[in-house]
Specification:
Elements (H helix, E strand, L loop, with lengths): L10 H12 L4 H12 L5 H6 L15 E4 L10 E4 L2 H10 L20 H15 L8 H13 L7 H8 L4 H7 L4 H10 L1
Antiparallel strand pairs: 1-2
Helix pairs in contact: 1-2, 1-5, 2-4, 2-6, 6-7
Length: 191
């Protein structure tokens, strides 16, 4: 990741972003955009290209995983991501307003949003909420950092975070993870 990294979102900033989404003309769609970034760690291009077939079970219900297929993933490195409960509820709320198949996130004209339109949407949302230094990648970076901090509670390892992120290299995953100075102080006090 060359250049400046996207900021990690605090819990309050994430809530502000979701509140903003809820006040827009398309609150259900926009809430899904935010949650796909924050709770599934998807990139803007993956959000734009995600289809209902990638998340629905055989009976048309919201499945337990998101199947990010190689065709939509960066470097054709697909993965499966468990569907977090807030995201599941947002997808269920969005589903009735969406045609039978095709993209989950649709533009006002009915087609899929482009990756650039997702990036622009996030930029406008961050500007409207006063969150500077954030980008469409902030939700993904927040997801990866939070997953890395909590993975031990789930009995997992950094390799599990790497797989959820869709990174080929553990070093790439490590570059996404933000340190926590409070945790570092607590750790040193235990030594």
């Amino acid at each position: 990741m060359a250049g400046k990294q996207a900021k990690i979102l605090s819990d309050q900033a994430a809530q502000d972003l979701l509140f903003f989404a809820d006040t827009t003309r398309h609150p259900d769609r926009n809430r899904v955009i935010v949650l796909l970034s924050l709770k599934a760690g998807l990139r803007a291009a993956e959000i734009a290209k995600l289809t209902w077939e990638m998340i629905e079970g055989a009976e048309g219900e919201i499945g337990s995983t998101i199947d990010v297929r190689d065709s939509v993933a960066k470097k054709r490195h697909g993965r499966r991501i468990p569907v977090q409960e807030d995201l599941r509820q947002a997808l269920i709320a969005l589903r009735p307003s969406s045609p039978g198949s095709g993209p989950i996130v649709r533009s006002e004209r009915g087609g899929s949003m482009t990756p650039l339109s997702i990036v622009v949407w996030f930029n406008r949302a961050f500007q409207a909420t006063g969150l500077s230094g954030c980008s469409s990648h902030s939700g993904r970076r927040t997801f990866i950092t939070r997953a890395a901090r909590l993975v031990h509670k789930a009995g997992g390892s950094l390799r599990d975070v790497q797989l959820l992120a869709g990174h080929r290299s553990i070093q790439t995953t490590q570059r996404y993870i933000d340190g926590d100075s409070d945790a570092q102080r607590r750790l040193v006090s235990l030594i």
